[in-house]
Design goal:
The protein is an alpha+beta fold and 106 residues long. The chain is globular, with a radius of gyration of 13 Å. It is built from four helices and five strands; from the N terminus they run ββαβαββαα.
């Protein structure tokens, strides 16, 4: 599954994704992060997109790092601390190309 959800507090919106175990390691998560991030920045004026992960989910955190997300602290989700990652629009454009990178998704 894939979603863009609102987070309470200063975090604003976050990208969410989840895969059944038989789909792990096949590149689906990478596609969701890559295209979801691009679509978010192409179709909104928001400066930042966040992602949250369970600290034990090393594969998801590695994926976020690979696509340019940076660890930004923690997020309290009903008493459980999750890692909070962020991607700024400027960082996205620097990593993935200029405005033409967004044009393909608008």
């Amino acid at each position: 599954t894939f979603s863009l959800l609102y987070l309470d507090g200063e975090a604003d919106y976050h990208i969410g994704y989840g895969l059944i175990p038989s789909a792990w390691g096949k590149g689906y998560g990478a596609e969701l992060v890559e295209y979801g991030t691009a679509i978010f920045f192409a179709r909104t004026t928001h400066a930042t997109l966040f992602a949250i992960t369970d600290p034990d989910n090393i594969a998801s955190e590695k994926l976020l790092y690979n696509y340019g997300y940076q660890l930004d602290g923690t997020y309290d989700s009903h008493g459980k601390l999750l890692n909070l990652f962020k991607m700024n629009r400027a960082d996205f454009l620097e990593k993935w190309g200029h405005a033409s990178a967004l044009a393909a998704y608008s």
